[in-house]
Amino acid sequence: MDTEELLETLQAADLSYYQANAYVTLLGLGTASATEVAQASDVPDARIYDVLRDLDDFGYVELYEQETFQARATDPETIVSGLTDRASALESAAAEIEDRYERPTLDTQTVSIVKRFDTVLEAARTFVRDADTQIHATLTPDQFDALRGDLADARDRGVTVNVTMFALDGDEPLGDADYEGAVSVAHRLSRPGPFVLTSDLRRTAFAPNPAAVEDYGLILRNRSFTYVFFWHFLLFMWIPSPVAYEADATGPKRYADIRQFLLENRDRIGGDEPLHVEIEGRETDSDRSVTITGEVVDAENLSEGDADEARAPSVLALTGTASMIVDDGERRWTVGGWGATYEEVEANRIRVTGVGAELDAEPAE
């Protein structure tokens, strides 16, 4: 241990910088006058007497007068014993802290701002494990690899997992085998972007683009805030990017958002062949879970800026009213999307079970 480290250690043992400096100087000098200690150390002349008296009170030095005011270091046995006991107590405290430590959860916080991406990633992993219906995420290949096991478990539980994968220059493109079992649909985007993961439209883990000047992360347990991030995902990361993988491209298509369903099936609804769906959601008046199977007989999905039915559907159609009517053979249900209030059902997942006379009997995931 060099002198600087010794000084820092003595300060950690409750000596001031001047006290530690004077004591270490006396260890080298043996016996010296106050003036000699001041000259050989960093202690100012005006402070040296007070500093030495404090060290005398602590038992580090002994003061006496012999023509001049003299000081000498005491036998270090007592000091060493005290420092050893202190070190042992600190080691015991460290061990006890490790024994008692449990990783704190973020359940009590609606919004948390964090500094480390590892914290954001751990929250994302928790949100994936908590998901019941849908996960939407923008990931790099490394981030996908870190979450893949949990995403696969979510898929096994029947959760819809939609991922936009960032594919930058030099990145090895992922193949179907990489996605299989962990992803419902994957899109590919050839530019960098933020880390975003939403779970059940209730929870969000976010970290900015690595090229951003500010380094921070957000962990949200809030439906309203989460929907803002979901819209960012949908408009900027999902719709503009091409499909790279689809779990069952030939089977019935599943949707986690009513707006995307209505946008893609706009021409089928009210067409010559009936469009049959299975909807999992909740009744808005009782908050009870409900599953509806039937035909979509009407829908509304137009914003004021996209009301011309002759025009091709655009992203603007996502910004307006989104609702539909489903006839299950006994009654007609009004179905809305996230935050549905006036409709009877808030849809969490929509599965196309058939177009025309043929129906798919496969149960929902």
UniProtKB/TrEMBL annotation:
Pfam families: Regulator_TrmB, TrmB
Segments forming domain Transcription regulator TrmB N-terminal: 10-77
UniProt-listed InterPro entries: TrmB-like, Tscrpt_reg_TrmB_C, Tscrpt_reg_TrmB_N, WH-like_DNA-bd_sf, WH_DNA-bd_sf
PANTHER family assigned: HTH-TYPE TRANSCRIPTIONAL REGULATOR TRMBL2
Family: Belongs to the transcriptional regulator TrmB family.
Coiled-coil ranges from the UniProt annotation: none
Superkingdom of the source species: Archaea
Domain called Transcription regulator TrmB C-terminal: residue spans: 111-353
Protein's UniProt name: Transcriptional regulator TrmB
Species of the source: Halorubrum distributum JCM 13561
